[in-house]
Amino acid sequence: MGQIDYDNRTWAEAIRTAASQRALSHAIILAGSGDTEAAARYAAAAHLCRAESGRPCLTCSQCRKVMEDIHPDVVWVRDTERKELAVKDIRQVRRDVYIRPNEGERKVCIFPDCRQLNPQDQNVLLKIVEEGPAYAAFIFCAPTAHSLLPTIRSRCVEMHVAGGEEAASESADKLCRILTEGSETVLQHLISLESSRLKREELLETVDGAWFLTAEALLVNSGKPTDNETVSLLARSFDISVLNRLNGLFAYYRGQCRYNVNVGMVLGAMAADLRHILRR
Ligand SMILES: [Zn+2]
Fold first, then answer.
1. pLDDT of 57-81, one tens digit each?
2. Which residue, 82, 85, 203, 207, has most beta carbons within 10 Å?
3. Burial classification of residue 152, based on how many CB atoms lie within 10 Å of its CB (0-12 exposed, 13-18 middle, 19 or more buried)
């Protein structure tokens, strides 16, 4: 398991904020191309952490057991042999959930790959999510939340787990390259994205990736080496003040993607702001 920079991951921040307000949902979907299992472990730690504040602290005994995958109250539900989970696995979950936690305050069931859950499984799980004991918590992981039925999604809080540098999506890469070609090309690209009926989570992944790439380009301009071609292209094409403004813009629209359902409106506003920054 590689070192993960929890301070700078938006999903980690969302988990910490909710946990500190004692408002971490008992049902979470972690979706995206990033390390959703690591995110699930972090969320489980937040559920079980004993620290007074700053949950998960990652240092108390509960957190450490979760992070090492040896906590008795965290159940990973997966089948590494078969494509789908068997009916007996789901029945086992249903039984497990009603057995009180051993040492923690909660019992956390993690489904590291929801593509293994067929609709019948999901319907059984929906009932437990809705009517299970108060100490039960569920964490569903998938590359996209569409692997889950709308009925389950409506009961869960969804968090996006974007990929890191290697995984900065192709679409983010493309957007950043196009930024260096001037505002007219950018405008046309965003119009084509809108007419391709881009989904909100795809836009979020693009904006998230562009935020990451511009942040990296800023580091390159202060001397950090990179072997990412898009990052060095950005660093060559823009000075620090423009990169700062681009990075701030993507940080802002990352938030907008999360709260604004209308992809077209977000794209339109972003196009106007980008045009303003890129006009020379
Ligand atoms: Zn802790």
1. 999 999 999 999 999 999 999 988 8
2. 207
3. buried
